[in-house]
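Box 3.1 A note on notation
Throughout this textbook, protein chains are presented in two layers. The first layer is the amino acid sequence; the second is a token string describing backbone geometry. Keep the layers aligned when reading.
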Amino acid sequence: MYASSTPALLVGPCATPADVDDLRAYGFDVCDQMGLSVVVATSDDVDVRDFSAVYVYEPTGRVAPVAALLEGEAYLHGVPVVRQQSVFQAAACDACAQVQTIATVRNEYGEVFCVDCRGLAAGCAHCGDDTVTRPVDVDGAWAPICRPCVEVAERATGRTYAETVA
């Protein structure tokens, strides 16, 4: 499922269906802005060592129990942890205008460039091509997939792959 990179794990509130929907929406943003496949943790039944990083979402500022446990395990095992940035740190990419809400990176001149414009996007998670991708829900995880791969999958399975959160 993840040809181009090891997926990241997203942790946050998951006690209610509304919490899970909100967490999945944030996962879409992580996939879109960071160019990573993202698995959304809805329980502690995952091994953080299977992931490239753990992204932490705390919309209310309070730590959710499952998120706290998985974040602690990530620190214990040396898995990078990326905490949610402040809304005041968000900025638009100077080249393509994509708003960076997950992790805004500025160069030495203070300019903001997204992972695509910096040339750091992993590419399509299915074929590995370094091409324009979009977040696609693949079996409950968000993956950056190029349009040709989505079209082939849709023809082969007869299924339409969602690219937005309902």
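Residues 8-157 form one domain. The first strand starts at residue 8 and ends at 11.
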